[in-house]
Design brief:
Chloramphenicol Acetyltransferase; 5-stranded mixed beta sheet; 17 strands; globular
Length: about 425
């Protein structure tokens, strides 16, 4: 087994390349009261002691976590917070707010969008309750909800079966990757790390998916492929990376911890005139092949081995270099675009107070998708200001008769993490 805390190992890669910043924007139907939010956030955060920790280096030059009794920082204004500094009380979590929006910023090494929703819901419930609203607490971890072993579980790779998947897919590396977009942004002093907030009514899209033997992931992947064909007619091959949460496969279905691997589907120019339903069917079949639990077991063992090797490195610099050079997260198949779907979150009594939920991460042509009973909330990640890709995406939605509303291009203002 690795020597240190399960959540600490991505810190080494983060030291060299901060790709683990997450910010979740929750738009409320009324303006935020900062004073009430600050008190409520402190109460709610105490429910999650596994988040109330700061990073330190021990005598072996290894990153460890130490308990922190300081409150979570609540800061006015939509801004990029420096996590791990005095600004965030040393924590890798912070909250900012502006107008009707509450922004939950955190480092990905603890949890992803799915795990963070428990903290977010707890904070919003406490805030609305402190404002005097009568909010049903069913399904929400309030301050007095017992902490369970299940929510803190981590996988035991030694207990997992050692079986080969029934089949595998081979992926080429010659698909379009939007490198020139990054080059153009680097040359532009006014370049943007931005997103378009898009809202799609949930019921008709789910009916569209069912009628076409699809899922939200496969339908969106097909639509995005059609987008790429329109935006880049000279390219012949595109690859989508689709996030797959494998916590249940490795025996930790209720853990807060982030356990995600990538699935890939490749499309070529021979599919450009196919209808969306046919592309979706092919996408879904290739997703099924990669969703085998055997693939998750293998991934879990590879993660453990990487962490063992990090522990063997003699100093911090060596640990950082090894983690960076052997990353299982950033050394996958080069993708043209990505989809990450948190799933339908049960907001319970919070639902009437929420206008929208948007997940923000570091990526370009990334689709972060949240959902409630009424809508899919899509963050269309882009580094372009000219509307390329967005207008083609909306054209495909129009052609398919999928309703939507889209907001203006906004800056993400993601947090940065400062480590010892």
């Amino acid at each position: 087994m690795p020597k240190y805390d399960f959540d600490s190992y991505t810190l080494y890669e983060l030291k060299k390349r901060d790709v683990f910043s997450v910010k979740i924007r929750v738009s409320l139907k009324e303006q935020v009261n900062g004073a009430v939010l600050s008190e409520a956030a402190a109460k709610a955060f105490r429910r999650f002691p596994y988040y109330s920790r700061t990073v330190a280096l021990n005598e072996e030059d290894a990153y460890i976590f130490e308990p922190c009794d300081k409150p979570i920082a609540v800061i006015e204004g939509d801004k990029s917070v420096r996590l791990g500094t005095d600004e965030s009380n040393g924590l890798l979590f912070a909250i900012t707010y502006e107008n009707n929006d509450v922004f939950f910023s955190f480092s990905h090494n603890f949890c992803g969008g799915c795990g963070s929703m428990r903290w977010i819901k707890a904070t919003l419930w406490q805030y609305l309750t402190d404002l005097g609203h009568d909010v049903d607490a069913n399904g929400i971890m309030t301050a007095d909800t017992p902490i369970t072993n299940e929510e803190q579980a981590e996988p035991d790779p030694a207990s997992l079966p050692d079986e080969e998947p029934l089949g595998t897919l081979n992926f080429t590396t010659d698909s379009f990757v939007p490198r020139m977009d990054y080059m153009e942004r680097m040359k532009d002093p006014n370049g943007i790390d931005g997103y378009y907030p898009i809202r799609i009514p949930r019921a008709p899209l789910m009916k569209y998916a069912r009628d076409n033997d699809g899922s939200p992931n496969s339908i969106l992947a097909a639509v995005l492929y059609k987008m790429c064909v329109k935006a880049l007619p000279e390219e012949s091959k595109f690859t989508v990376g689709i996030a797959n949460n494998y916590r249940e496969d490795v025996g930790c279905p209720d853990t807060y911890r982030d356990m995600v691997r990538q699935m890939y589907v490749q499309y070529d120019s021979g599919m450009k005139d196919w209808p969306v339903d046919k592309i979706s069917t092919v996408t879904r079949s290739r997703m099924y092949l990669q969703m085998q639990p055997e693939a998750s077991w293998d991934r879990c063992r590879r993660v453990e081995e990487l962490r063992r090797q990090i522990d063997l490195q003699p100093d911090l610099e060596s640990k950082v270099d090894y983690a960076f050079e052997n990353s299982l997260i950033t050394h996958g198949v080069p993708s043209s675009f990505h989809i990450s779907y948190v799933g339908k979150v049960d907001w319970g009594g919070l639902e009437p107070f929420i206008e929208g939920v948007y997940s923000l991460t570091i990526a370009h042509l990334m689709f972060e998708v949240n959902a409630n009973k009424e809508y899919f909330f899509v963050s269309f990640h882009t580094i372009r200001k000219d509307g390329k890709y967005l207008k083609e995406f909306l054209q495909v939605l129009d052609e398919e008769g999928i309703a939507y509303s889209v907001g203006e291009l906004l800056e993400k203002r993601l947090p940065t993490t400062i480590l010892p």
